[in-house]
Amino acid sequence: MLRDTKKTDELVAIEEQAAESGYYVLNVEHCRKLFRHKPNVLLELPVDGLIFTNSVLTPEIAQSLNQNQVPFVAVNRVSDPPDIHWVDYDHQKAHQQILTHLLDLGHRRMAYVAFRPRLEEHDLRIRQAHREVLEPLGLLDSFTYVTDADMTEYDTRYGEYGQQIYGMEKASYLMRLNPRPTAVIVCGQEAAHGFCIQAQSMGLTIPADVSVVAKGNRQHKMETEAFLTMIGGGVGLKAKRAVDILLKVINSPNIPPVQQLIDMDVVIRRSTGPSPDKERGQVNPPSSSLGSSSNR
């Protein structure tokens, strides 16, 4: 498989699924600059197929692999080129579900916090989903859609506390706006935890003053797990689907592109509640439906 960060739960799941079919996984870390000097380097790897994660796949790489009949699959939704195998979570659908739920709770000022996405295509989809829900209601606010930092820089500077510190910084910014958001979607449990810490240090109560939603891996364990409303998908499920697809392509190289979207869980917990504006009788939420979700 091809990826560009340290070994994660996703890699562990890929290794376990591959082992069930008698395959071993070679983890290759690289940067895209490598292919400017040696574009065919992947053809030299002694492997039966490739799994790309963290958006390291480029159209040039895909073209080279297709021309040389090397099986591969991306663990990201990819539209360029359009005819490759990929699997991903349906982030757009889940994002719109949680926005609709927050609207039902009376929230009218909703913020989104994430690190700068590595995959521009993913960022555009989330922005589109955000806009499609809020813009027709006149609720879209560019100042509360925050993706202004690189996660690697924070991890390098602050180590294991990097994501939590980013969440704290964004809480400090958003909670000082006038009027401030009454609900915030934060990518990453650690960042969401940091957001909660900082908001509470500013004298705010969760969820009475601000509702907080965390987006991330539902299998991730941390002390706020039973408190945070979550948008999540198990890393293992997507990774295992990727291995299954790759094995199909290895055995049947000419099958049509396999492209799968997996529904994410929307789990409602104690960190979200009615908007303080609704509690004061200042809004009437529009009629809407959350879709598939659960209360735990």
List keywords for this structure.
296 residues; alpha/beta; Rossmann fold; 7-stranded mixed sheet; two-stranded parallel ribbon; 37% helix; elongated
Describe the structure.
The protein is of the alpha/beta class and about 300 residues long. The protein has helices at about 10-20, 35, 60-65, 90-105, 120-135, 150-160, 160-175, 190-200, 235-250, 275-280, and strands at about 1-5, 30, 50, 70-75, 85-90, 110-115, 145, 185, 210-215, 230, 260, 265-270, 295. Strands 7-6-8-9-10-12-13 form a seven-stranded mixed beta sheet, with helices on both faces. It has a two-stranded parallel ribbon with strand order 1-2. Strands 3-4 form a two-stranded parallel sheet. Strand 6, helix 5 and strand 7 (about 145) form a beta-alpha-beta unit. Helix 1 (about 10-20) crosses helix 9 and helix 7 (about 160-175) packs across helix 8 (about 190-200). The chain is elongated, with a radius of gyration of 21 Å.
Write the layout of secondary structure elements.
Blueprint: E1 2-3, H1 9-20, E2 28-29, H2 33-37, E3 50-52, H3 59-67, E4 72-74, E5 86-89, H4 91-104, E6 110-113, H5 120-134, E7 145-146, H6 151-158, H7 162-174, E8 183-187, H8 189-201, E9 211-216, E10 229-232, H9 235-251, E11 259-262, E12 265-268, H10 276-279, E13 294-295
Parallel strand pairs: 1-2, 3-4, 5-11, 6-7, 6-8, 8-9, 9-10, 12-13
Antiparallel strand pairs: 10-12
Helix pairs in contact: 1-9, 4-5, 6-7, 7-8
